[in-house]
Amino acid sequence: MKGIPALAFLLSVLLALRVDCSHAQTSSPSPTKTAIFAGGCFWCIQPAFDKGNGVIKTVVGYSGGTEPNPTYELVSSEKTGYRESIEITYDPAKISFGQLLDIYWRQIDPTQADGQFTDIGPSYRAAIFYSTNEEKKIAEASKEKVARSGKFDKPIVTEILPAMKFYPAEAYHQKYYQQNPEHFEAFEKGSGRVRFERKIWGHGP
Q1: Which of the following is catalytic: 41, 60, 126, 163?
Q2: 34, 64, 146, 186: which one has the fewest Cβ atoms less than 10 Å from its Cβ?
């Protein structure tokens, strides 16, 4: 009879461990969110977001248009509403939408309406795409903060638009700065983007 209480105790411990393990197996991973920004040449805005703490993945592509399955040739014809964009998957517990915008503003010229730097045309126009009213409010407040920063002597014209379907670009555009580092560096500097970043924000390659 003395062994029965000990056996019962052992069974209760094993049952508790089983419940804990079951809970661990069924608990869902931390939820992620996505953000979509257009900032001119999508090659050039990808590196900064890839470095962001809390950014899980970035994909460059096209957003803002309605024609299904756009290609680079179609978008660059400037006959669609698509803009070169980036989709950022991030962990909101580590980086917020507002902090992503802080990175974004430092990659663009927010006073330029016809494109970005030497890339001129509708597909290169900057825009922040919002998915919720909360994101819209955050974007508007962030834009106002930039306008009041004193860093720009022209109006901030970057658009804040409702999110539309995002289409990934062709494989050769993804992580272009890693696939073709020499060409990327020459293009980035030649566009005037690096010089602008150094002048306004005091950073750049």
Answers
A1: 41
A2: 186
Expressed as residue numbers, the domain containing 134 is: 33-201
Identify whether 21 is a catalytic site residue.
Answer: no
In a domain, 149, yes or no: yes
Q: Digits of tens for pLDDT over the chain (205 positions)? A: 445 455 455 445 444 444 444 444 445 567 999 999 999 999 999 999 999 999 999 999 999 999 999 999 999 999 999 999 999 999 999 999 999 999 999 999 999 999 999 999 999 999 999 999 999 999 999 999 999 999 999 999 999 999 999 999 999 999 999 999 999 999 999 999 999 999 998 865 4
Which CATH number do you get for residue 154? 3.30.1060.10
Asked if residue 165 belongs to a domain, the reply is yes
| CA–CA distance, 23 with 27 (Å, rounded to integer) | 6
